Fold:
Amino acid sequence: MGQPPSNRQIAALLRRIGNILDILGENRFKVMAYRRAADNIESLPQDLADYWREGRLREVPGIGEALAGKLDELLRTGRMSYLERLEQQVPSGVVEMLEIPEVGPRTARLVWEKLGITSIQELETAAKAGRLRQLPGMGAKTEARILAGIQALARRSHRTPIGEARPVAMALLAGLQEAIPALERAMVAGSLRRWKETIGDIDLLVAARDSEPVMEAFVHLPDVAEVLLRGDTKTSIRTRDGLQVDLRVVPPERWGTALQYFTGSQAHNIALRERALKLGFSLSEYALKREDGQELLCAAEEEVYEALGLPWIPPELREDRGEIEAAAEGRLPRLIETADLQGELHAHSTWSDGTASIEEMAEAARARGYRYLVITDHSQSLGVTGGLSVDQLREQRAEIERLNRRWTDFRLLQGAEVEILADGALDYPDEVLAELDCVVASIHSGLRQNREQITARALAAIRNPHVDILGHPSGRLLGHREASDIDLEAVLQAAAEAGTALEVNAHPARLDLDDVHVRRAMELGVPIAINCDAHSPGDFDLIVYGVATARRGWATPDRVLNALSLDQLERWLHTHGKGG
DNA sequence: GCCGTTTTCGGCCCGACTGTTTTCAGTCG
Structure:
């Protein structure tokens, strides 16, 4: 039997069931149940197949008796007969239509039944020929919206990495503030405020008495390519590079409820509203409403949570992954903050593929208030990066020692980003690694090896007593390269045993470990290092992305290596993995 | 479909915007 399906594949199957049921007009709560289960499975840190093997499927939120039975069949046989039956009832092209913005289950079913349309291609042809407007409840405008939706889908079907979306959002906010200097408050909300690794669309929130001038200024910002909809409280535009941006304007006295609502996530909000109902409130973006209709306004977000008997919950945690329960029980973690960080453990210089000298990198780190910086240039086998030979490594040591005489409040350490070779050996011999202060071991080649091979490489590195940190463990590049097939659960278990740290690479194209595996690292007691993998002084600014990812994984400062003081760090580097 | 500090049955978040509507359906978040 082949490999069990991944969580993502299973989630996709359940979403497919949900979509087909939706088109067939099934009970919407049943549809939602499939989608909710899919979301929950996708955010599990371990393979669902592991839960299944241990008979713990029902422990996953959203999996009840019926779904457990279907998943059991899938994991036993590789098939799900229920889905196969459903697929015979609706052509796959009709299901695909749900991907089109503006097209939902009703529309998909309508064009299928009335016009016999069974693909996005046919839908486009029919729309262009003006045949959709003949359908009941449809007109020329709807037809045009659908056509625009099909084109938008072709232009941008994927989510945008946060590193691309965030600067766009900041520029739009700055543009608004410039156009309306008297703007009371303006903030990013939505998945961007939660620091999700990819962003579907950008949500902006503004407090103002009069929304009209704000909306007017917004649609005339230079980056706006198209106005999708325009109302009193909500306006949506598409930017020139295809990002959708929603702007909402609320009166200042309702800022708290509005910010809470527009920050999401949807799952968090639903859970919060259910809690509100139990307490006799109805919660919306405008107010908490009592059963007698009386409104309780919240100008600050804290007031919303307080009214529901909860402490304020950091946006990074708002995914309905247990944060509401933890808040209710006073168990919210004290999350790591950028200000906790004392140094950087992964930085390159001109000795390999960095753009700045060791001295420039050190001064930049020191200027940020860091107390230490580990220089980790590439090892010899990575030719394209100018990896260092053993001799060069020793020359570099002299340079670092010379520079260190300069400061009393700051220290350079010598490390290396040593390549984990295709056969699992490290790119420097042990006696060379032993001379280094801090060793980051990473995989840059052979990323397409099968699961056993690539996992074995990582495990060998983790168990080498000279290796302190496993760099960017999954090897993914958001939007460019999928994660390798590495078994991260095995990696985390081995790291817990060996006392080796795992990196949370802060580069917004990596964010690797990701949030759910950081969470698992916290459960297992695995230390993490939040690293910029800096190749220039400017890269130190990327730390915010890494800290946010760690926070999304419930990371606390006591588990973060570079939150240690220099003394503590040196002690840790000296003793870990050596039985000390 | 799931789920339970009232419920193993009867609930299941709440509202904006648009278009084609004489009062609402569909989509979205």
In short: Chain A has four domains: 7-155, 160-250, 255-328, 338-577. Residues 497 and 526 of chain A are 9 Å apart (CA to CA). The longest strand of chain A covers residues 411-419.
